[in-house]
Design goal:
2 domains; globular; Dihydrodipicolinate Reductase, domain 2; 9 helices; six-stranded parallel sheet; alpha/beta; seven-stranded mixed sheet; single chain
Amino acid sequence: MTKVFIDGSAGTTGLRIVDRLSTREDLELLILPDELRKDASARADALSTADIAFLCLPDDAAREAVQLAQGMPVKIIDTSTAHRTDPQWAYGMPELTGKRSQIQTSNRIANPGCHASGFVALIAPLVEQGILPADTKLSCFSLTGYSGGGKKMIAEYESADRNPLLNAPRQYALTQQHKHLKEMTALCSLKTPPIFCPIVADFYSGMEVTVPLFAGDIRGNINDIADIYKSYYADGLIHFSDQTDPDGMLSAAAYSGRDDMVLTATGNADRILLVARFDNLGKGASGAAIQNMNILLNIDQATGLNV
């Protein structure tokens, strides 16, 4: 039976992974009691015992865990930002060219960021296929449910006497220094980081990442983009659909509770909208981490997931 250690099991992502894996009969979960969660010796012992470890920690704590695991055979899936652009780590989006084989053979896997997952899924294949030049200057706006902000933000939104400003969507990362920008730029081989406008709103989970394009930005048309998505994402948990919601809109909460991602290309001959919709806690976090674990275990990638 595979032994799985979840380092940081008290956080939002860690709790979600624990909940999802607790019913798996092929796994034995290793979870430290609260009084030992930050004890380096206890964490090192758990890492030495585990076959696979999930790091659901802040960046510095994740780096510390990697140092504790130095020389151990444990395979690590890090959900923090710390290693996502480290060339010694496999980037945990198996749908991208070459990434699945890297994940299968790696002891170190960096789970993608939530906003970044949508942007990379939309843009990486277009740059790779040559329809979108790497020097294109892009913009992106992304809607997310408040669960993406972790326990503190969840408590703020669910408080009975919460700030009335939380009743409306709020834009953040106003200095254009969001921690996902480095990842978004590197994984898409872009020359310039995009202008990125993340927005948190009053719903629990779900994400909608949108990249607008002018027709002159691409070497082709909207139908070419759709064809690329259909062929590129033929195997995995990312899919293309030209369907909107029944009311003709695109809700950011449409895929809440799911672990897949749906891409849409809409607009007209002059202006195009590329949209990725998924759950920030699913394909944007714990679902993607479990998908990567399943690939490591050489079992169906969707085992234990809602797709």
